[in-house]
Predict the 3D structure of the following.
Amino acid sequence: MSIRHYLQFKDLGADEYAYLLQRAAFIKAKFKAVEKYQPFADPDRTLAMIFEKASTRTRVSFEAGMYQMGGSVVHLTTGDSQLGRAEPIEDSARVISRMVDLVMIRTFEQTKIERFAAHSRVPVINGLTNEFHPCQILADIFTFIEQRGSIQGKVVAWVGDGNNMANTWLQAAEILGFKVHISTPRGYEVNPALAGITGNDCYQVFDSPLDACRGADLVTTDVWTSMGFEAENEVRRAAFKQWCVDEAMMAVAKPQALFMHCLPAHRGEEVSAEVIDGPQSVVWDEAENRMHVQKALMEYLLLGKLA
Ligand code: CP
Ligand code: NVA
């Protein structure tokens, strides 16, 4: 198999997602049964993780997942590597990819991860950029299916910033055949062109967040200020005031609607404590599922289809 990277959600097709989602369920079942599953043990496979931004879930899920599969990890940050001392990203890619089997990167501009991938001998996974967060949306979709069955034809309400998560939801909707209802404050809209969305069948824009949530199967949001945009914090806090997912929004969604948040969350800002800690919230399963879907993704990128 030639090298496959996972830099955006649209890097894989619907058939590949069908495979990955069932594979993630298989791998999760092994984990729950405390059964060893180590396709990366012999020969030993190594994942390099490069973090230019903070992380809890992404680091733990990739690192624990890799060890569970019998492999090992190398953890690099901007501050403790030559990345922080202006070594060109292309040179870093050439060197790192001669020593490991797989690379996960969390960084700023998408162009940075694309430049790395262009000079890498091994698959590169996007662990979050300013523009996209595909591993998170993969976990969210796996979680939805686990709880409610197929996501095809369903409505996902996105309330808040038109950010990396929102862009990735658009790509997923186009590939997997569901619809995103988006409501953002003015000036913080999603950018379908950046996501590469050509038609408008997979999304609908609403001025009012309440209207976006009406009849939704899933209501989801994210922080008002993403990493790298901290200087805008105060301006955003004022602009996003009406975009807090609360019980009134959940009440107009379908009675069986789920609530998701990629975390970390700020109770009382983008979501009320009643919603995130309430009965419709599946945020802890969602976080755990990062590990299961990423194990399936790493297996696929390194070993191809196994079943
Ligand atoms: N959701 C997510 O990516 O979390 P971290 O920033 O903690 O990795
Ligand atoms: N949109 C957020 C997601 C954090 C997991 C950010 O980019 O900071």
Q: What stands out?
A: Residues 9-133+289-303 form a domain with the Rossmann fold fold (CATH 3.40.50.1370).
